[in-house]
Write the structure tokens for this entry.
Amino acid sequence: MSGGSTPSAVASHVLIGVLAVQGDVREHLRALTLAGAEAVPVRRPAELAAVDAMVIPGGESTTIDRLIRIFDLAGPLRERLGAGMPAFGSCAGMILLADRMLDGRSDQQTLGGLDITVRRNAFGRQVDSFECDLQVSDLPRAQDGPFRAVFIRAPWVEQVGDGVEVLATVAHDERRPVVAVRQGQLLATSFHPELTEDHRVHALFVQMVREHTDTIDTRSAPTAGTTNEEAER
């Protein structure tokens, strides 16, 4: 069946959180489940401590940045990312995973982790949203053809560091900006794979998480002031 994914017994043991403060939370939960993972919303540090990996959804990057600071998630997220937790960011999530950002608000912060420079709203306003077929490297079931990508007020990548793998670019005016990257256990796309019925990007991420959890326990111990009971909820 083109676009879908069949969950496997191995992948079902992977627990992936979706940052659930704003954005396409339900869509990512569904896509991850169809890609073979157990997926849960994450709003509190104790919930973050229980997962193997995180998805930062598309939405409004300034709002997500403000809310994760309000909910005391920014620090724990940076700690987990710094410790090697796999993460996938789509659209706004790409901005939040970037080390450097252009055209952001003066008070806007990122979580960092990806050695890239992103330009916020690089493709224009909401009316400039578009869809196109992309050739995306590393996707499972490459024989299924190109990936139908949805761009909504999307960022693009202006610069990549030496350790960053470019997975996709797109023709735009006279440029060909980078719109999908991978660096180690971090994955990011300018577009919204969660808004399509093609779950191969999520399947790629589930595969990355499964490979990582085969070698290391990515779940953190309860943070200071958090009881074991809270961490297990």
In short: The first helix runs from residue 25 to 34. The chain has one domain: 11-232.
